Recover the amino acids of this structure.
């Protein structure tokens, strides 16, 4: 057999491609976290020295990074002037916050979630998992950024339109909407902005997320119809709401069934539970598409592992397919589960009623 056709050669090619992808994300994260893309977008092409002066960063590091980013195809490099530059068509992807095409969140999530590596190896050997206190702050920045894009460009502009009763009651007003596992509150803030006559409440277990959510709401000027509170959704609430939503909460929970019980009790009998989770198949072996490896990686580095750290169910990132949604709904007393057709590549949305 010709050496070039050996299966080992194909595998090596694949590894080289994956290595390029991995370092691409790492170098992109440096550009995002230090604001280098932002500077290039705002102030234009620069040599590494000019960039160092503009940004008060070390020239030698910037030179190495700039050439690396050029080799990866993210930046341009002029051999005569030695200036690096960012194609303005790339600004919506690498610089804009909350833009429809923004990928800053994906970059930050991937780069930061890979950090507690030795704890992960220990979990493979000894079971258990990794708690939130070991998760890098950059991960939450990434969750915030992906949420910002998703809720601005999908939730309030598309998904809500596909649930006409929810939309019209929120428009008329005087109804309540609770967002469980609200994270940094991007979904709650977008909803509160869109429906100023209704009242919105965001609950999350993790206090730093609640603090961030309050700041985001303040910066967005949304204060009259929105409140954030720290709360573990496994514990029952006394209040009832017209609408309850969970955006990427249930598959992360230590005890998803307890969470579903709280939700059922919290939704009024004529209310609606909006469940957004990760789009996935009933048999995980049937999951297909370019983002599937990313989902398993996220499961290992966050979703499954933070739940298992607490003897949780560890459903994992692709652990809440439609069959499981229906099983939980049945167990806690929701009667109808309707999948909302969306063209989002990562998320599925269900309209669920008591
Ligand atoms: C993947 S994040 C999603 C955050 C947000 N909904 C979004 O889409 O950006 C999951 C969130 O659920 C929260 N969470 C996990 N378990 C929880 C529980 N038992 N009660 C309340 N929040 C919880 C986490 O703190 C985290 O903010």
């Amino acid at each position: 057999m010709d050496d070039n056709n050996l299966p080992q050669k194909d595998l090596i090619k694949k590894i080289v491609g994956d290595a390029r992808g991995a370092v691409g994300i790492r170098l992109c994260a440096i550009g995002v976290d230090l604001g280098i893309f932002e500077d290039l977008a705002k102030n234009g092409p620069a040599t590494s020295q000019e960039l160092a002066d503009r940004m008060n960063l070390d020239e030698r590091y910037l030179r190495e990074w700039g050439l690396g980013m050029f080799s990866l195809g993210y930046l341009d490099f002029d051999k005569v002037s030695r200036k690096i530059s960012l194609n303005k068509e790339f600004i919506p992807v690498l610089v804009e916050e909350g833009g429809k095409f923004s990928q800053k969140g994906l970059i930050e999530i991937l780069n930061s979630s890979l950090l507690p590596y030795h704890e992960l190896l220990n979990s493979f050997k000894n079971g258990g998992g990794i708690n939130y206190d070991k998760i890098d702050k950059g991960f939450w920045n990434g969750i915030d950024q992906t949420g910002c894009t998703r809720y601005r460009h999908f939730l309030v502009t598309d998904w809500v339109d596909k649930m006409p009763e929810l939309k019209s009651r929120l428009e008329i007003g005087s109804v309540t909407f609770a967002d469980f596992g609200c994270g940094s509150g991007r979904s709650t803030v977008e909803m509160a902005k869109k429906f100023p006559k209704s009242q919105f409440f965001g609950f999350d277990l993790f206090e730093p997320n609640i603090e961030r959510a309050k700041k985001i709401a303040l910066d967005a000027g949304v204060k009259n119809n929105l409140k954030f509170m720290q709360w573990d959704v496994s514990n029952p609430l006394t209040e009832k709401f017209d609408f309850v939503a969970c955006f990427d909460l249930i598959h992360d929970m230590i005890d998803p069934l307890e969470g579903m019980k709280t939700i059922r009790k919290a939704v009024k009998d004529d209310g609606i539970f909006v469940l957004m989770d990760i789009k996935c198949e009933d048999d995980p072996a049937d999951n297909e598409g370019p983002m599937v490896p990313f989902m398993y990686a996220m499961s290992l580095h966050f979703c499954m592992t933070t739940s298992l750290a607490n003897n949780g169910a560890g459903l994992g990132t692709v652990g809440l397919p439609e069959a499981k949604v229906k099983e939980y709904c049945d167990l806690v007393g929701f009667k109808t589960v309707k999948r909302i057709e969306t063209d989002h590549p990562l998320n599925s949305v269900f309209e669920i009623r008591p």
About this structure: The chain is about 50% helix and 15% strand. The domain at 110-353 is CATH 3.40.50.150 (Rossmann fold).
